[in-house]
Design brief:
It is built from 4 helices and 2 strands. The longest helix has 41 residues, at 2-42. α3 (95-104) packs across α4. The protein is mostly helical and 139 residues long. The mean pLDDT is 88. It has one domain. A two-stranded antiparallel ribbon has the order 1-2. The chain is elongated, with a radius of gyration of 21 Å.
Length: 139
């Protein structure tokens, strides 16, 4: 009886641990899916931050790895950014810095992004999802 109780208890503990791990994996999968949707379907980050070939098609394997901006302002704009930096893997900021940037529109050094980059004001959940997705692209 004692062994049966120990075995049952051990099985219950393993089930709880496995369930927690599975829930964490599901949460992470959902977070990355939300980030992917926001990056690709809402923010359209790919349009500026991914290079294109001579036919205007995105270059496979280079998505969100930085690119020259393919358009110019109608009126002169001295602060215009000619190149969109790489976002895949977040090479220039930590995930936490990216969340702050997406929430408040300020880069880690306190400066604002150069046009044509908008100063996003995402809520914390969306900013966290975007940063997590972008970070995952570097893995």
């Amino acid at each position: 009886m004692k062994n049966l109780l120990k075995t049952s208890l051990a099985a219950a503990v393993l089930f709880i641990i496995a369930s927690g791990t599975h829930a964490q994996e599901n949460n992470r999968t959902e977070l990355l899916a939300r980030g992917r949707y926001l990056v690709q379907g809402v923010g359209l980050c790919i349009d500026c931050h991914s290079p294109r070939d001579e036919k205007g098609q995105f270059i496979p394997g280079q998505v969100l790895k930085g690119a020259p901006i393919g358009f110019v302002p109608a009126a002169p704009m001295p602060a215009w950014g000619a190149v969109a930096p790489a976002l895949a893997g977040l090479p220039t900021m930590t995930e936490a810095q990216a969340v702050q940037f997406l929430q408040h529109g300020l880069k880690p050094d306190g400066s604002r992004p150069r046009p044509p980059m908008p100063e996003y004001r995402l809520n914390e959940a969306d900013a966290t999802a975007v940063a997590a997705y972008l970070k995952s692209l570097g893995q």
